[in-house]
């Protein structure tokens, strides 16, 4: 069952902050087919949305290579949005 497009659009329109979305293709709790339409809806309303999919993972990252990749992305995302590279920091 996929998430209805109108619901994705309504929820996506409410997001005002940068967003990083990460999914595992084997996730049975939050399947990829739920995330992809939501990502597409968010992208239409906001350009600042990141997306990563780990083919070998479920709901959480168990493989060291994916943990390293994911947390590296989180650090870069935070640096860009709230950290040393953010617009707010550059104003100070």
Set out the fold topology.
Blueprint: H1 5-13, E1 19-24, H2 32-45, E2 49-54, H3 64-81, H4 87-91
Parallel strand pairs: 1-2
Helix pairs in contact: 1-2
Could you explain the architecture of this structure?
The protein has 92 residues and is α+β, with helices and mostly antiparallel strands. Helices cover 50% and strands 13% of the residues. Strands 1-2 form a two-stranded parallel ribbon. Helix 1 (5-13) packs across helix 2 (32-45). The termini are far apart. The relative contact order is 0.17. The model has no long low-confidence stretch (mean pLDDT 88).
Short synopsis of the structure:
This protein has 92 residues and is of the alpha+beta class. It is 50% helix and 13% strand. A two-stranded parallel ribbon has the order 1-2.
């Amino acid at each position: 069952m996929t998430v209805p497009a109108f619901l994705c659009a309504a929820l996506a329109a409410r997001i005002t902050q940068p967003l990083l979305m990460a999914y595992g293709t084997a996730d049975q709790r939050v399947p990829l087919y739920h995330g992809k339409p939501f990502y597409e809806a968010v992208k239409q309303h906001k350009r600042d949305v990141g997306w990563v999919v780990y083919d070998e993972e479920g709901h959480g990252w168990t493989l060291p290579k994916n943990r390293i990749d994911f947390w590296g992305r989180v650090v870069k995302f935070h640096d860009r949005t709230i950290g040393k590279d953010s617009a707010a920091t550059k104003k100070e």
